[in-house]
Each structure stands twice: as structure tokens, then as C-alpha cells.
Specification:
The chain is an alpha+beta fold. Helix content is 36%, strand content 29%. It has three helices and seven strands, in the order αββαβββαββ. It has helices at 3-31, 64-74, 119-133; strands spanning 35-43, 49-56, 81-82, 91-97, 100-105, 139-144, 147-152. A four-stranded mixed beta sheet has the order 4-5-6-7, with helices on one face. Strands 2-1-3 form a three-stranded antiparallel beta sheet. The chain starts with a helix and ends with a strand.
Length: 153
Amino acid sequence: MTMNSLSARRKISLIIVSACFCISMLFWGISYKGKRYVLLFRSSESKDLCLESRYIRTYKGQSSVSAFVDELLLGPETERYRPLFSPGTRASFCFVRDRVLYVNLTGHLLSETGGSCTIKDGMNIFKSNIKKNFKNIKKIEMFADRKSMYECR
């Protein structure tokens, strides 16, 4: 074997390895589901808190906290768990400033319908979800229809 043929084999091997790496990165990028979060919900049958894990994607211009809050307000995926708030409750704004989360929920929150938790219980579970998944948030200020509800510490 000459030095030239060894050099050519190394180049071919390097090209093949590089191509495999690029293809695997492409497939990983296409199949990326988002970041994994753990959501807490109250059980329908008992008073226990139950865990549900989800992969949540953030989209351009959306913070991870905002995406998480939107997903949390959609409610549980299984029928065995109770939603935190009444169906239709959405966040009209959600942002973090100086380690404080400001969330304004729509007026649907005030009607306890659809098998949801009580407002107080739902807010406590909401707070627990935020604290568990976002360690950098130290305080949560919640609003309903732009009126301050209370501070969750």
C-alpha cells in the first residue's frame, strides 16, 4: 500500500462519518419535541396530586414560561385528572420581570365549571407547577381580567 491510497481511504472515511453526523443531526432537528416538563393536576377520584409529563415547544417570540402556562391552562390529557380552572381560561399576558411572574387570566377563571378545581386550589396548584418547573421565579402575581387576585409567594 502506498501513502496515497491510505490518505484517500482516510478522506473517504472522514466524508462518510461527516455525512452520517449531518444526517443524524437533521433527523434529530426534525423530530425535536420540545423540552420536557412535569405538570401537576388534582385527581378526580381522590384529593391526590398527580403528575403528567409533557414535551412543550416554544415558538418564535414566545418565552418558555408563557408556553408552559398556555399548556397548563389547557388542562390534563387524561380524564382522571381535573383541570386547574374552568374550560376556556386563557392567559392574556404572561411575562417575567425581576424574577416575578405576572399572569393575567381571562374571566372564565371566575366560574367554577367543567369539573375544575376550586379557584383557590387551582391557584395553589398553578403556583406549585411554576415553582417546580422554573426555579428562577421567586414570586407570582396573578390577575383575573386585569384585576389583582392575590400574590402567591
